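Hi R.,

Here are the chain sequences for the assembly we discussed:
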Amino acid sequence: MEIHINQLFIAFVTGLTAGGLGCVAVQGGLLASCLAPQESLLRTRWPKESRRGAARSRAPRQAATPILLFMAAKLVTHTLLGLLLGALGSMLQLTLSARAVLMVAIGVFMVGNGLRMLDVHPIFRYFVLEPPAGIRHLVRRRAKEGADAITPLILGALTVLIPCGVTQAMMALAIGTGSGLQGAGLMAAFTLGSSIVFFTVAYLATQLGTMLQTNLARVVAIVLLGLGLFSIDSGLNLMGAPISLARLNWPTSAPAMTAPQPDSPSVAGMNGAPEENELEITVSADGYTPAQLHARAGIPTRLTFVTDDVYSCALALVIPELRVEQLLPVTGEVTVEIPPQPAGRVLRYSCTMGCNAAQIVFDG
Amino acid sequence: MRFGRQSRSMRYDSTKQTFLVRDMQCLACLMRLETLEDALPGIRRVTGSYGRQRLEIDYDDAEVTEAQIVAAAQAVGYAIRTQPSGA
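And here is the predicted structure of the full complex:
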């Protein structure tokens, strides 16, 4: 089964930025509640007379243990959740257009959360899915009662029930992967990224001032807005929609953007008239080059994708209008035959993530 | 004088009061406010909604007063007030 490393990297960075701070806000109190009894336990274990020497050097390590246990449990449960959600996505057999709609919906959800955090309008508060009161009650009870070593483990595991807005968006993305393994990897990468921030804040026990906290919330909101717009744009690319951000700057008849063809753009027939377009597209980590090509309308087109040691989602090619889904080799050539297209037609394609948009314009 | 939306249950001798919360910014705020359940004797149940910026508190008014609840919420950083009738 194939793993999209790019997607995992994006999930990790999301965790490291928006996710980490979002998680600290929602779940930080839980961790603090299980750290407080541990600290009092520590004080009991190390009486005054023996605390000065060995205890001082051991205390930070002791404080780190519950945080690490909390993180480990959180990582395990979120990875399992990703596995389940991805498997659910694969069972649903999401079609290309369903995936595209899901990506746009996730984007809208993220943008809504970003606007909520910026307090643009009270309506955006409904972009957070509130866990049921019973679950919140259960988590709180456990946090209150526990003072043993297992409490951080249980609370870490329970965080899966009280996801922050960004985690909820990642969960939706895990369904969209349509693969248990990819879903698990996505949630694991996201949780690892967020854990770094979570651990740093918790370990340093930083008491952020109100002003700093507000500014951080704004940063998270802006990151969310950016990620949301990216997701919407990817969904639009995947749909082959003409209005995605990448396509806004592409005039459909700009000669300057016509691809330089190595020999001739078309193969001539017996009477000299061209009978087939031959187009070559180089696939790299940056996407498809040239991003826009012009071809003659009314004749078939041979579209050759050339890869050379490419490891990126650009290998998973989608031409939505023709329902073509093609996995390209890491190194090699793959030809896609396109039937004659009418003049003025713009054939859009991208990777299955929707992040590498390109198109062919058929001229009369 | 009591105002706002409230109901009394004779069985438990409890009062259910809805409070409006200002500055509830996320789920964390909601969960923090729900800890009022453990903070004051006489509070039976605290549930709320971040979306609606409301808290519903079920309490025994023989043990705790509305003013004490408002003060306890203020102590954890939130200004709450009873929801006016019909709101």
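Chain B touches chain A at residues 25-28, 30-32, 34-35, 37-38, 47, 49-51, 53 (CB under 8 Å). Helices of chain B lie at 27-34, 36-39, 66-75.

Let me know if anything looks off.

Best,
T.
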